[in-house]
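Trying the structure run again after the queue cleared.
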Amino acid sequence: MSFTAQVKDELSRIEGSCEGCSLAQLSAIVRVCGTLSFRGPGRYSVHISTETGAVARTMIKLTHELFDLDTSLTVRQSVLHKTRNYLIEVGEQDNLEEDLVRLGILVPGRGIAPGVPKHLLKKDCCRQAFLRGAFMAGGFIADPRGDFHLEIAVTGEQFAHEIVQMLEEFGVHPRLNHRRGAYAIYVKSFDGVVSSLRAMGSVTAAQAVELVRQVKRDKNNANRQTNADMANLRRTTHAAGSQVVMVERVLNLPEYRSLSPALREFCTLRIHNPELSLAELGSLCDPPASKSAMYHRLLRLQAIVAEHDCPAQEG
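Done. Tokens:
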């Protein structure tokens, strides 16, 4: 099951706080993925097509509970894509026009309503239910393990803008894109996706996205630390290798016999421990020496090599 299907299944199981929630959710489903047919005064029929069983189940359940309308369900199997398509038909019935007006789908004497049914969206719980229905009917969410992306595809410019405004009331800041005769309302950030899910009442999915975000963050932090450790190791190895070359030169200089015990100890330890850092090398000294002390011994040896390579010229 895709992550989108999981979210829609969760949304389908949320019970509204009042009857207005059910009306709002059903209104959004019909408005977003329904097709309205008109065959004369008062003669309407509605067709809903969806590939999600949760949407079909919710559509039929709410239609029967709220209006006691007759519905028919046809399930078709796509051989090519191996997916099911659910076709729900609400045929011509005596009270269907009145019910569509109540849902905010029709405006008496004016046809299909251009925007959202504001008379159904006076409460926060009802607005959440409407967003829930809109996402179930036309929504998509990417698997958060790959990307953060959530969108709702709708038709009608005014309708799309009013859904955007509704999401903004819940702290979401979506973008709107006109795409092939439809409008895509989308967010592409972690905060936007989580806020959208919570606005629809999807607590479980929101927590799942947050968990994935934490896993990604921990993995990125671990990768950064590993990269930093590797870089430090490369620098240490390069520096130690250069010191070994320098110490080998010191060992062949006449001045080596006159070096102090501390400098001779540095040379011996570095030759036998070429992979260690200065701090680690210092811990092997007797008595142990600090990183600063080891660094100063290194500078003195470098000065001896430099003086031997470029002896001062007499005036």
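The chain has a mean pLDDT of 87. Worth checking whether this holds up in the mutant runs.
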